[in-house]
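Subject: Sanity check before I submit

Could someone independently write out the structure tokens for this chain? I want to compare against mine line by line before I put it in a report. The sequence has 226 residues.
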Amino acid sequence: MNSEFWQQRWQEGRIGFHKSDVNPELIKYFSNLALPIGSRVLVPLCGKSVDMVWLACAGYDVVGIELVESAVQAFFAEQNITPTITELTSAADKSTLKRYQGQLTGQTITLWVADIFALSAIDIGAINAIYDRAALIALPANMRADYSRHIVKLSNNAPQLLITLNYDQSKKDGPPFSITQQQLHQYYSADYKIVELASKSSTLNANSEILVTEHVWLLKPQSTQY
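---
Independent answer below. Compare away.
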């Protein structure tokens, strides 16, 4: 992970990827995961996303991973939660990790300040599902294969609700990066059955003429009857 790049973006307030409202695709399609109340949902590269608030209010424990500590601090401050902060040693590479943990509507929100590749399944504990709105599309192509393999190990191949974008990458440098259906299958088809739940097209942002298609995917583990 390019720590300096993301640290600088948060420091300069260049966080256009952060949305003040809950993602409507999460609200509409999360039930496709069919998770029992109380399940633990992993949100990789979580920032200070209010989607985590929605998940907690829906009855789920949240495990987030974020490289930038100020983003984690902002999340708890904005939600008026006083977290417990613990320093731990990574089971993966023995680096120092920091864990922020608090309660919201009776659910536990645990946010790790760490490079996601420094975390292991031993560190974060059992995961029942993954909600990936901002992780895969934040990574350049040369990192995505490693990320997809790592997220499978980190979650013990838990099902995923995944959101991707597809647009003419030659017209804009990422992030967010464009991901084709073929690329998605390269990353995940060995471990998951990939089901498209929805797609919609719009411009990349209000000041852009770049047409982008947002795709919502359900990734169902190949190794289970899920």
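---
OP: Matches mine. For the report I'm noting this point. The mean pLDDT is 90.
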